[in-house]
Amino acid sequence: MTDRAPTEAAPRIVIGYDASPPSTAALHWAVREARLRDCDLWVVRVLGDGRAPHAPYAGATAVPRNGPALRELRRAADDARLTWPHVRDAAVCDDLPARALARVAAGAELLVLGTRGPAGPGGPSLGPTASACMRIAPCPVVFVGTDRRAGESTRPAQDHRVRTDEPVGAGSGGPR
Prior knowledge:
Strand content: 15-25%
Helix content: 25-40%
Largest sheet: 6 strands, mixed
Radius of gyration: 15 Å
Order of helices and strands: EHEHEHEHEE
Strand order of the largest sheet: 3-2-1-4-5-6
Shape: globular
Number of domains: 1
CATH class: Alpha Beta
Number of strands: 6
């Protein structure tokens, strides 16, 4: 594992992983996609760097830099390597997960994120990190949901910027 994101230009898919059921479903989807595309898969966990103060109501923040988060990351990457050997894991330090994921996704083929789906009638479809990634990611973004009853992954959730020549669930990664 590395404290910095790898920088070589090999084709890759980046998955934002936080050990939640949606991110685990997204990781399984991303492993299959990396195999289909024959590219590297980077499993990225964003850890707080402690520099930015956050109010509890301010939205998603990175998890503190600690052992359990790193162990979860390593375990998830090791499990993914059982299916696809071209898996790397990286912990990135930043107090804003979307900013960190966008930085790591520069030059990637896809950024994959798990999403819990709508928070109920009238609730937001995406959380703050997913919403921010959709706006600032430099590559297409795929959202993978879970079946709330079974905990199984569903088809990727559709991004509102989908073009007809792109895979379902992939956004454009920015304005065209």
